[in-house]
Amino acid sequence: MNDRERLLAIMGGGTPDRIPWIPRLQIWHTAHSRLGTLPESLRGLSRRQIEATLGMGDPARDGRVFAAEQTGDVEVSQRQEGPLTVTTYRTPVGTVRSGSRTSTELEALGIGALEVEHMVKQPRDLAVVEYLVEHTHYRPTYEEYHAYESAVGDHGYPMVSAGDCPFHYFLQKLAGYQQAYYLIADCPDEVERLLTTMEEVEREYLWPVVAGSPAQLILHGYHFDSTLTPPPYFSRYITPYYQDFADLLHQHGKTLAMHADNDSRLILEHIEAAGFDMAETFTTWPQVHCTLEEARRAWGNRVIIWGGVPSVILEPAYSDEAFEGYMRGIFSAITPGDAFILGVADNIMPAAMLSRLQRIGEMVEDWGAYPVDGAALAR
Question: Is 203 exposed, middle or buried (0-12, 13-18, 19+ CB in 10 A)?
């Protein structure tokens, strides 16, 4: 089987011939390419060629099935204020602005800018954002998706992003977690109105475009966390939305994934109840409290885990012995290998050692054939 076939088999509830090894190499490759520090054996190779050399599949995260376009009486402008890139939105009901910051160090590594100023700072900004939401158009880009899927070929299967759910998008992007929860407490009616508008627009205009698209693997939801989206808020604002969206996708034979670069320990059951089929870039101890064993006990093979390798164990701070022991534990925990794709959470970072990436490729060859014999590895 190739990696495309392995992913489709897992998404369909079947079993692959072996565990797929499909991490995100982009940051590592970009950083070393720009810094001129790629190992000699890999110089002159594209990212895809390096992935093939290391026995990796392509995570294929750049497919699109829609483009969001701002409509209405909106003037969008952008300017630099020192290191801050400020974007301003002028509407008939008011003006809001957001700001992002980068650095020469981050740019050298190919890491994007950080949002440091959020659009919603005070209650009156909520109406402005509501106007922007009401005047957003979703245009299908299915031909673009087909071209991308063809380019990925047998190396993987495209994962198409459909953004985030309204509640968490409000928390993380529109207001920032702290201010968002202040606003929920201080002006709940206004926040509820915005969230309702966001959901109505998505249900009417975004959901049909995604559900009717040729893509099968849909990523919708990012960074849900035990602390920042705790169980009571998850149950109230997140679960009902995703239950309906998941039902729609399942009617069209699609798989719903969430970006699980977070601590999921207290919301594992909520993630499954919401209807998610996959937790992608699933992050585990020591980067968060949650362990792979806890997730497998909670989910069984009902939620596909894509991840399991914390990026820190690929770096020199972890000894070779600790690295080997951790990796053996992964293969033991996933026995016999159902509903699992081996990846790195969240990315392979620039400090990752090539020798360890090569070693994981060897482990997959030696230990990853289905069914995985975890008992033998534990001896």
Answer: middle
**With bands split at pLDDT 50, 70 and 90, how would you rate the model's confidence at 379?**
low
What's the confidence (pLDDT) of residue 85? Answer: 95
> Does some domain include residue 20?
yes
**Contacts of residue 152, Cβ cutoff 8 Å, sequence gap at least 6:** 4, 58, 60, 63, 158
- Residue 125 belongs to some domain of the structure: no
* pLDDT confidence band for 103 (50 / 70 / 90): confident
What is this structure's pTM? 0.96
Determine the average pLDDT of the residues in 273-285: 98
Nearest to 200 by CA among 254, 241, 252, 152: 241
- Taking the C-alpha atoms of residue 109 and residue 45, their distance in angstroms, rounded to an integer, is 18
Instruction: Output the CA torsion 48→54→55→57 (10° steps).
Output: -30
Range of the domain at 82: 72-119
User: pLDDT band at 83, cuts 50/70/90?
Assistant: confident
| Ranges assigned E (strand) in the chain | 66-70, 75-81, 84-91, 94-101, 114-117, 136-140, 159-161, 217-222, 255-259, 278-282, 304-310, 340-345
CA 148 to chain CA centroid, nearest Å: 19
- C-alpha to C-alpha distance for 58 and 7, rounded to whole angstroms: 11
Specify the number of domains making up the chain.
2
CATH number at residue 254: 3.20.20.210
Buried b (16+ CB within 10 A) or exposed e, 321-342: eebeebbebbbbbbbebbbbbb
